[in-house]
Design goal:
Number of helices: 4
Number of strands: 0
Order of helices and strands: HHHH
Structural class: mainly alpha
Helix content: 55-70%
Strand content: under 5%
Low-confidence stretches: none
Distance between the termini: 17 Å
Length: 85
């Protein structure tokens, strides 16, 4: 069976995706970050539902937390991690 080749991922692209698109950055490295993407999506959907159900509460901290988590997560990984595909 032939070894499957994958293109290298860029840490810079991943950080920019995190800054501008929050948890969607984990789609860029989906093969390794599947669970993070689904957790992020679930929390953002939950935030939307809570904002609709109880708009008087400050639920946006949940979505803000996912955004910060995504930026920190991709920023602290070494460049080699993105080349391990």
């Amino acid at each position: 069976m032939a070894e499957e080749k994958h293109g290298h991922k860029s840490k810079t692209a991943s950080v920019l995706l995190a800054v501008f698109l929050s948890f969607w950055t984990w789609l860029y490295t989906y093969k390794k970050d599947t669970w993070k993407f689904w957790v992020g999506l679930g929390i953002v959907v939950l935030t939307v539902i809570l904002r609709i159900a109880r708009p008087d509460r400050g639920w946006l901290f949940l979505a803000l937390g996912i955004w910060v988590w995504a930026i920190i997560d991709v920023s602290i990984k070494k460049d080699e991690w993105y080349h391990s595909y």
